[in-house]
Design a protein that fits this description.
binds 2-OXO-4-methylpentanoic acid; binds pyridoxal-5'-phosphate; D-amino Acid Aminotransferase, Chain A, domain 1
């Protein structure tokens, strides 16, 4: 193993193992570690045709005291189950999910980036329906696989601002659709609008609420948050936004810093009033947004991270790396 930890980006690379569980005949098996990254599937598998495919994302950190801890895995277990319920997949018992996380991280402990390098071990649970079928119905057999990848910053350049373009004519989710759960199809839907954003020099697409296009929803990879002139933390309340574990944690940390926190509908006209805008999520942590492009308008939030997002970033990462007290028991020790 020869990894330049400081140079890691957000790219797939194989590690020692991944862990796989099979659901069949109404129950989950005990799971097994695999060193191969290949799977064998029927060409008629449900996940390939009818989209029973869901995933999660969470991280393990090598903390200041040398121990490895996972950030809020119970939240991912709950969200995975909310996804499962929505697309008729069997739920994953929380104890099984937490045990899977522990087993796969322990087996890949050498791939958790050293403390001080800014890296972490990204854990990617993915669940697929594998029953061969040609008629549309839910699968009977499923696989839950957790793979792990050592990662650095999602966007090249660390926490430097990225630009966003509002997707004016394409949505990632439908009203009353699947935006609030983490299915693979949502990301397929965001590929084309994200490509259009990139063609306009923007690393991310920002989506509006799919019903009226009046309100801000979220980025393709992360939640939207903004700081108002009077120092409030605001973030969209919308049925088509993925409930982000990072955002939920940041709202708590912001409140602890004495900031008023508002989760509410955010009209796109408010973009002109914010002093700082950020994207937040497991992969992107907090990424400041430099400019937002919308039709012929440009909203400019500066070319360095603003003071409030910087403070939130420090408190968040300080908590994750065990530099600050874990006040709410967010870190799971292995
Ligand atoms: N929104 C979308 C569309 C995402 O893909 C993610 C990433 O998981 C998030 C928000 C952030 O969620 P979390 O903070 O739980 O990673
Ligand atoms: C995550 O932040 O874990 C995600 O799943 C986002 C993904 C687009 C990388």
């Amino acid at each position: 193993m020869n990894i330049e930890w400081e140079k890691l980006g957000f790219e797939f690379r194989p590690t020692k193992s991944n862990i796989r569980y099979v659901y069949d005949d109404g129950k989950w098996d005990d799971g097994k570690l695999y060193t191969t990254y290949d799977i064998t599937l029927s060409v008629a598998s449900n996940c390939l045709h009818y989209g029973q495919a869901a995933f999660e994302g969470l991280k393990a950190f090598r903390c200041k005291d040398g121990k490895v801890r996972v950030f809020r895995p119970e939240e991912n277990a709950k969200r995975l189950n909310s996804t499962c319920r929505h697309i008729l997949m069997p739920e994953v018992p929380e104890a099984l999910f937490l045990d899977a996380v522990k087993r796969v991280v322990r087996d890949n402990i050498d791939y958790v980036p050293p403390y001080g390098t800014g890296g972490s071990l990204y854990i990617r649970p993915v669940m697929i329906g594998t029953t061969p079928q040609i008629g549309i119905s839910s699968s009977r057999r499923y696989e839950l696989i957790l793979l792990v990848v050592p990662v650095g910053p999602y966007y090249k350049g660390g926490i430097k601002p990225v630009n966003a373009m509002i997707s004016d004519d394409m949505d990632r989710a439908a009203p009353h659709g699947t935006g609030h759960i983490k299915i693979a199809g949502n990301y397929a839907a965001s590929l084309y609008p994200s490509k259009v954003a990139k063609e306009h020099g923007c690393q991310v697409a920002l989506f509006l609420d799919p019903k009226t296009h009046e309100f801000i929803d979220e980025f393709g990879t992360s939640n939207f948050l903004a700081i108002t002139k009077d120092g409030k933390y605001v973030t969209p309340k919308s049925a088509s936004v993925l409930p982000s574990v990072t955002n939920k944690s940041l709202m708590q940390l912001a409140a602890d810093l004495g900031m008023p926190v508002e989760q509410r509908r955010i009209n796109k006209a408010e973009l002109a009033d914010f002093t700082e805008v950020g994207a937040c999520g497991t992969a992107v942590v907090i990424t400041p947004i430099g400019k937002i492009f919308y039709r012929d308008q440009v909203f400019d939030y500066g070319d360095t991270i603003g003071p409030v997002l910087k403070k939130l970033y420090e408190v968040m990462t300080g908590t994750q790396y065990g530099e600050l007290p874990d006040r709410y028991g967010w870190l799971m020790e292995l």
